[in-house]
Write a structure and sequence with these properties.
The protein is mostly helical. The chain is 69% helix and 0% strand. It has four helices and no strands. The mean pLDDT is 83.
Length: 71
């Protein structure tokens, strides 16, 4: 059984309200695939930094790195 067929069977077994929640989530997921417009100003820095640090980092991690550079 393919993944799509399995998903359809699982959705068929859900109560109507749960199926609606799942469909809303899928619709939101589809909207997330639309590329964002080119960032301008300070927001462009976020995309630039992703080239070097693809994984999100906490403020504490950034501050640790900055403080190491001061020493």
């Amino acid at each position: 059984m393919s993944a799509v067929e399995l998903a359809i069977e699982k959705v068929k077994a859900l109560p109507e309200d749960k199926a609606k929640v799942l469909l809303d989530w899928l619709a939101e997921l589809e909207r997330a695939d639309v590329p964002a417009p080119d960032a301008k100003g300070a927001m462009a820095a976020l995309g630039y930094v992703r080239k070097f640090y693809p994984q999100p980092r906490t403020t504490a991690e950034w501050m640790k790195e900055l403080r190491e550079g001061e020493q």
